Every structure is written in C-alpha cells, then in structure tokens.
Input
Amino acid sequence: MKNAKLLFKSALAILALALTSCSADDSVAVASEDTSEMRLFLLDTARIKTISAIGTNEQTVLDKQRDLNSYIASMSISPDGTKFVFSEHQTEGTFPNQLYKKRLKIANSDGSGEAELYSNPDNSTHIGNIRFCSDGKIYFETYTIGNNGFRKKNLINADGTGLQDLGFGNYTDISDDRIFALLSYTTGTAASCQILDLRGDGGAGSGHHMENFAAGIEIGTGRFTNNGKLAVIPFKEGSEIKVRIIDVAAKTSTSKTLVTGLSSGWLHYELSMSKDNNRGVITLTGGDYEKSKTYVFNLETGEVAAPFENNDENIFSVYAY
Output
C-alpha cells in the first residue's frame, strides 16, 4: 500500500523545462498571525479525519473504505471552513470487468451532506490539484499517468453546475482568485519554480517570476497562501527541510528552516497553509519513520512546534485550516 501511494504521489510531480533566473532577498512580508484555533484535516487512505494542531482529539468525519483499492487522493477546504472537496477513487464491478471510478465530491466539514460534483468513466484518468476558491468555484485537474499522459484544467461550481474545460496544462497550485499559477518541480538535478500570470498571453499565462534552487536540492509541491500574496515552496537541502517564501507582488523571497537532523534515506513531504496566510503544516514520512510526523510552523516568527506522530506511515497529507 505504501509503495502504491508513493507512486500515486510521484505521478503528481510536474515535468517542465529548467528555468534560468533567480531572485531572492529577505524583504518578504508575512501577514500578522491569526491567533484563532487552527484545525487540521488529514487523509488516512480512504478516510478524512480532523485533529487538533497538537495531534490530539482525532475524529473520523468521512469513511470511504470499501476494499483495499479505496482511497482519497486529495482534498481542499473551503476558505470559510464549512465544506471540503475531495477526489474519491473506488473499484466497481467484479473481476475481470472491474472499473476504477474517480469522483470529485463535496461535503460539509463534519462529513455530512456528501454530494458528487464530477465523475470520469475512464479507468486511466485521475483527479487532483484541487483548489476550493472563495467565490464558490472549484478548480481541479484531470490527468493520466505514463508516457502518453496528459493533464487538463477544469472549473466547476460548488453545486456541481457550470463545468468548464480550461484546456490542457498543469499547475502545482492556483491562487484563490485564479490570477496566478504556480509550477514547482525537480527535473534531473535542477529544481525550479515559476509563477505565471494567467491574465497574460490570451489567458494561457505569461511569466511573472522565476526561481532556481541550487544543484542537489529536492523540491516539494509548493502552495499559495489563501490570500494569494505568498507562494511557499518546501525543499530538502542536505539534512534539513526548508521553505522558500516568495512575495508574489514584490517578486522577492527568503528561506526559513523547518526541520533539521534528517538522515540521508528516502523522504516524502507535503505542505499545507492555513486560512491566516501565516501558519502551516508539513508532514514527513520516510525510511526512518515508522509513522509519519507532522510539524506546525509559523512563517512570521519562524517558530516550529514539536511534531506529533500520525497513526501510520500511510498518512501523507495533513491540511491546515
């Protein structure tokens, strides 16, 4: 199960041309901290759970476990925290006529009111890179895996109406107002990120800002903050996990260290930002982790709370609200 899920996560990596410029300084402005309680949602294979910011009071709000093929690939929480959208993958039918049904669904934050927004009958098509926007629109991508793989961008209303085909292409993340798109990826030994302005080039997107990382650095999936003012890119440098914080408007950046003392073994990490545009979580799993660990961090102060251990190594994704 672990290897299968890692292959699925790896398929979300973006392949693109290496970029050739970099801009960085220490002038990135971070929003003041919202001291309200931060809620965490985690994916445990085919279950969505809530948990406190210190790893206590875990509760299952949605259980979609039918068989060993059941899983929830990704999710996105609405900006007001009342709902979430998720991509559910299930096996239907009996061998040898089994189908792998992929659905985009919506539910209230307590798991009630589940409804289907979109489904795809193609066995090879997956749903991911979801963003629940504050105007009630939901951005998501459909994609296939392999040498002939493709990605398509889509937009749909929260009630399942108004499906729009936005054409081929892929983004690591998209801003809440859908003005900027983020690409972050590792190609060979070169790790790079690019922010596109989607108002340019007739809607196809024009280059807004580009950054390269030093050779040998492993880059993770970057995210915009909820207000779209910052792009936060996790990366591994030596034995440390850091984040590159990019001010989208100013086109400046700085880096901060989140985790130190890591081994040289394999490592997988995923990042999520909370509604306050300042706090976030990063979840690590790897060869030295019997169970995955989640770290809560504060961009403004640089503080990183002591990590809490998740139930098992199959919890890759923890989402902050």
